[in-house]
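Team,

Forwarding the record for the chain on the shared tracking sheet. I've put the sequence and predicted structure together so nobody has to dig through attachments.
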Amino acid sequence: MKKLAFAILMCVAAMSAKAQVLTSKTVNNVYETVTNQTEGNFAFNAERTGNDITTMYVYQKAASMGIVSLKPHMKFEYQYSADGTLASRVAYRWVDDEWKCTGRHDYNLVFGKYIAEYSRYNHTLGTFDQPIDKMVYSLMPDDSVNYVSNYHRDRPTSDFRLVSEAAIVGLPQLFALTK
């Protein structure tokens, strides 16, 4: 399921030609796209503040004798920067009849680079660990991507190691980790 939400986000961003950096508009486009689909095993709902989606709910569909029921499955909470870019997305799973935090993605624009980091939630400490995955997107002056570097570390206290890097030519890229 972790990859479902990211795949959805990636597909919608790919459909919008200028969606280089994730914004409130990108999240809204994702929501509109997934809610307009009638097929599939999932249903979606959202809470908004103004035009911004602040929480998106994912329900798993189950059908029995022609009756469809919805079971809570995932929840995503979104926070935005003042300029409307996505600052963070916190993910929760429905476990034992309650929402359990699983992790957070943080997004930052720093010196011509768009950085996406993933941190797991530490249930023992009740806080997020240091990031374990990081993707760094080098931006051109028009905010298109020309280079992507992917980093990982096995423990939050170890150093990041380069996992992959690639030059990008032609297509808009998306800023979501696949954890």
